[in-house]
Amino acid sequence: MEYENSKVNRRQFMQKSAVAGAGLLIANQSGAFAQSVPSAPNGNIKTRGYAARDASGKLSPWEFQRRPVGPDDILIDIKFASICHSDIHQMKGHWGPQQYPQVPGHEIVGIVAAVGKNVTKFKVGDRAGVGCMVDSCMHCDHCEHGEEHYCENGETLFTYGYPDKASPTGITQGGYSTNIVVRDHFAVRIPDHIKLEEAAPLLCAGITTYSPLMQANFDVGDKVGVAGIGGLGHMAIKLAVSKGAEVYGFTTTPSKVKDILAFGAKEAIVVDDPSRLAPYKGKLDYMISTIPVQFNVAAYSSVVKTHGTFTQVGMPEGMSLDISAIGMAMSRVNFNVSLIGGIPETQEVVHYCADNRVLPQIQMIKAPQINDAWDKVVNKEARYRYVIDAATF
Length: 393
Ligand SMILES: [Zn+2]
Ligand SMILES: [Zn+2]
Prior knowledge:
Elements (H helix, E strand, L loop, with lengths): L1 H20 L2 E2 L7 H4 L8 E8 L6 E8 L6 E10 L2 H7 L16 E9 L10 E4 L2 E3 L5 H4 L12 E2 L20 E5 L3 E3 L6 H4 L5 H12 L6 E5 L3 H12 L3 E6 L5 H6 L4 E4 L13 E6 L7 H5 L2 E9 L12 H7 L2 E4 L5 H14 L5 E4 L4 H9 L6 E5 L4
Parallel strand pairs: 11-12, 11-14, 12-13, 14-15, 15-16, 17-18
Antiparallel strand pairs: 1-5, 2-3, 4-5, 4-9, 4-18, 5-6, 6-10, 7-8
Helix pairs in contact: 6-7, 6-11
Bound molecules: zinc ion (ZN) (2 copies).
């Protein structure tokens, strides 16, 4: 027995040494290291999550490892991760072939469990969130000006499925898991006056709509359209309403009309046929579409006034959209596509939503319900963001 104990102690000591060498401040200095940070003998961090195994996109439990906490890293004990349609698209290979097993999830919130020696942004016990990216070159012009998602050196590292030499699995692994190691710059603070589970969807749905809405620079009272009222769209309505716009919500789902009005929109329009858009031709100052499938872009754009702007943020299968050139020419609307938003702006939207009570409408689920929830997202039955309790992974 004594021998066994000393073996355990020696192993724990080696774990401590390995990680301390990487500059780690241990979460619970006086307690057993293995209890506060689930470390593997090689110094990696042990993690449980739900992974896709192939392009069927069916998720199942998976134990894997993350890199040790480096000098600029933090370890987040994940509390909640929410479901984005992008998770489904990517796991099913809609955006290109994938490496499996792969853990999706880029709306991640939790509590900081460890920090590297250079980290000043966070301390153990802080609330933190991670969105769509986890690293970049950090020194190009875009990275230095808060547009890390447009890293000029092409080093933007997205949260799951991207080649990552530092990851024991060779790719980044996302937030449907018990913990994540991330460079501190790519985590944002979650203030105390918002529930963690309500903050999670802000990390993608929030920033992805907030960034182009802010870029549109509309005035109070301007008419703003939102097309596609799911996880992103319902946040777009709430954000635009909160910023003083007169909002028009366009949906293909009649049962969402009541919700759209409850979110603060002036009108909810059911577009069961493109002809439903005709009465609104040239009426809106700006429009954002979150529609994640092929749709009639020219017809939707035509509701924006001439020389106005239409922003697409939904990303369909194959990552391309068919657009009628003549249809667009007839309305002369500026069309652009927006990806996400940078880290400073992500921090901004989290504070904005917490301060102004602009909160996502969420449905809590346990890990074994994820596959069903994904089906509901695809079938437009989500109302409006599923949030997974990470304690159930
Ligand atoms: Zn997303
Ligand atoms: Zn860069």
